[in-house]
Known about the structure:
By secondary structure, the chain is α/β, with parallel strands linked by helices. Helix content is 48%, strand content 21%.
Amino acid sequence: MVILGVDPGTIKTGFGIVHYHKNELRLLQFGVINLVKEKTLPDKLKIIYAELNRLVENYKPTDFSIETTFFGKNVQSALKVGYARGVSLLAAVQHQLLIGEYSPREIKKSIVGTGAASKEQVNYMVKTLLNVRDEIPLDASDALGAAICHAFRKDKQAPSSKSWKAFAEAFPERIIE
């Protein structure tokens, strides 16, 4: 599967694209959509949407992974990130991608092993998991972390057998009686 991960923001939006097959990760692309020069929020959202559409058309991902909004003390910042998430999700929905949403803590725990990991720790582990020696901007490594988290989570959810009996034994919590 090819996964597009996004770390939404209205100053910088990170993106990362990975290929995941049989427990093997391969980096396809990463980057940051820099929105500092844009003056208005609608212009920033238009650029995010257009860039994500371009990435989807070029790399043909099947899945899309995005960080959920972390709500801090600044409500304005949370709203702006929410807008960036909205146009990002819209791009994914319009291309009929399977969507996974994960909290920053879930992503950090999946990548580093602790939900309290720093951005630098996530960056280091993303580079290690993808066998990358070059620098990866923090916003891009967060997006790659979201994509990797999605791959790991989706892999866990997949039943190892095609029989219903094996599925029921593997996931008893999903049985409705």
